[in-house]
Structure formats: C-alpha cells, structure tokens
Amino acid sequence: MKTLTRSLVRHAHAIAREVSARAVLLSADVIEDENDLAGLIEDVAFRVILITRKMDFRAPEGWGDLCQVVRVPDVSMTRAGQIKVATLVAAAEGWIAQGDRIVCVTGLDRSGRIDTVMVLDLGSEIEMFGGATAEPLPRDIEPAVFERLLTLASELGLEGREGRPVGCLFVLGDSEAVLAQSRQLVINPFRGYPEEERNVLDAGLEETLKEFSAIDGAFIVRGDGVVLAAGRYLAPVAKLDEALPQGLGTRHEAAAAITLDTNAMALCVSQSTGTISIFRRGRLVADIPKPRSRPAEEF
Fold first, then answer.
1. For the segment 76-120, what is each residue's pLDDT rounded down to a tens digit?
2. What is the 3-state secondary structure of the chain?
3. What is the CA radius of gyration of the chain?
4. Which residue has the higher pLDDT, 172 or 56?
5. 221-250 CB burial, b ≥16 within 10 A, e <16
6. Closest by alpha carbon to 37, among 78, 1, 73, 65?
7. Distance CA 21, CA 99 (A)
8. What burial class does residue 175 get, using C-beta atoms within 10 Å of its C-beta: 0-12 exposed, 13-18 middle, 19+ buried?
9. 118-156 pLDDT per residue, tens
C-alpha cells in the first residue's frame, strides 16, 4: 500500500481522537483491493463509515457496529458532493447527528491513493452544509425512501430525461399536510393504482417517475415511499423569513416554504444547473452540484 495513503490514514486516526470526532468517513471506492481496504480500516482503529457506490459492497468482517456502510448514488459526483450525500444518508440512518465532528478521508475513485483529510463540524460548515444537515429524519420518513429519492434526483440532475435537462421537485413526508396546501395542475397519473405498484422502493417504478419528471408541479411522496401524486402545485401558507441564495428560483422557493409550514422534506432538481437542493424547516440543508467535468479532475 502506498506510503502517502497509510500515513494520511494514520494521521486521520490521531486527529479523530484528538478532536473527539464521532466517526471517520472513508471513501472505500478509492481502494480496490479488499485486503488493502481492510488494512486501512485497521489503521484507522476508530469508528468508520465507509462510502461506496457499489451495491454489492460489504464491509470487512469482525468490526460489528464500529464499521458501517453508506451507499451514495452511482453517478458522476465531485468528492465534496459525495461527502455531502454520505453525511445526509448517515444522518438519516442515525449514525451521526447535529453538532458531531467527523473526519473525512478521501481520494479519487480507483486511484488506490488517499490524498485528502478534512475535519467537519456538522451544523457549522456553512460552505458545505446548512444548519439542519444532520438532524434526524422526521419519524414518518423511512431512511431507505429518502436514500432512494436522493439517488433518483441525482440521476435526473446528471442525465436529464432523453438527453434534455429536467427540473423537478419531490416532497417527502407529512403528506396530509402537504396535500392540504397544494392542488393538482393536471390529472394525477398515480391516482387509483395499488400502493404496492407506486412505491419508490420498487425498482420497476423508476422509469415511470423519470417520465413524469417533465410534468410541471411536484411529486408528493408518503414517508413509506408511496407516491400519492405528481403534477401538484404547491401553495404553502408560510412565507420564508430569509431570501434563498441567489440563483434559486420559484420551484426552490416553493420547496423551502412547504417544508417551513409542514414537517416534510423537499428535494429539488434545478433544470438549468442539475444541482440538487435539499430543504427542511424552510432552510437549504445541502446543495449537491452536477460535476462540470470528470470526477477525477474536480474536488
């Protein structure tokens, strides 16, 4: 194993202990050899959360609860974007929380070399995250559903639909309150179908969701993954106290406002940039930009 990688990982271990970190986030896809990865985890000798795109990835045996796996969408993403997504998923699973300090250890995928160590304080890293990044999910939202919508939004942001960029909005959780503050723009294409046929956790629904992403309005998704409606116009009662960051439009404003007046979350894909913006409690929790170039060329 390369000297730089082992040295940085050992320093990350020392840093994690000195700053009382909650966990070390390690990009597992950087190291292709399983034995090398197991050796790195042993060098870390700390609670580790492994970040991977691989669905069949398994953590090395023998670590129990000290080694967990976060799967991020298998799409082109900057390293900063990967860390943002991994942090959101880890928080959804309850492995990290608001106020925690984490040490991130990363490098270029399949390079075999760790080259970056970062220390992040969740909730205070304004450049990376919003203030509610690591809050637990609302009780009615299942982590697997949030993760599935995050993957779907990432794919739409990167690929668009049939070669064309799309902008769309998913509102997740507290569905009765969301429906009460919205109305149909078009006939609801999901109405009348059995719930098991319109759950986002069913891989067979993916193409249908992508097809309907071109419809104006929002998808309303129950916390257990059942899609209640598409083409929904949001009319939240609450008004935002603070203006959204420059460059975010009316779709983003509606997404933020509906989460201020309900206990829902919103995932908004920008048609112009492909950036995914995630809102909760009326605030921008995180934005995940579409890479401008190959992942190997951009942090």
1. 777 887 888 888 888 888 888 878 899 998 887 767 788 888 898
2. CCHHHHHHHHHHHHHHHHCCCCEEEEEHHHCCCHHHHHHHHHHHCCCEEEEECCCCCCCCCCCHHHEEEEECCCCCCCHHHHHHHHHHHHHHCCCCCCCCEEEEEECCCCCCCCCEEEEEECCCCCCCCCCCCCCCCCCCCCHHHHHHHHHHHHHHHHHCECCECCCEEEEECCHHHHHHCEEECCCCCCCCCCHHHCECCCHHHHHHHHHHCCCCCEEEECCCCEEEEEEEEECCCCCCCCCCCCCCCHHHHHHHHHHHHCCCEEEEECCCCCCEEEEECCEEEEEECCCCCCHHHCC
3. 19
4. 172
5. bbbbbbbbbbbbebebeeeeeeebeeebee
6. 1
7. 10
8. buried
9. 898 886 654 555 555 556 678 899 988 998 999 899 889
Query: Residue 256 corresponds to which amino acid?
Result: A
For tokens 């450049």, name the residue: 127
Q: What gap in Å lies between CA 60 and CA 269, rounded to an integer?
A: 35
Enter the pTM of the model: 0.80
What letter represents residue 282's amino acid? G
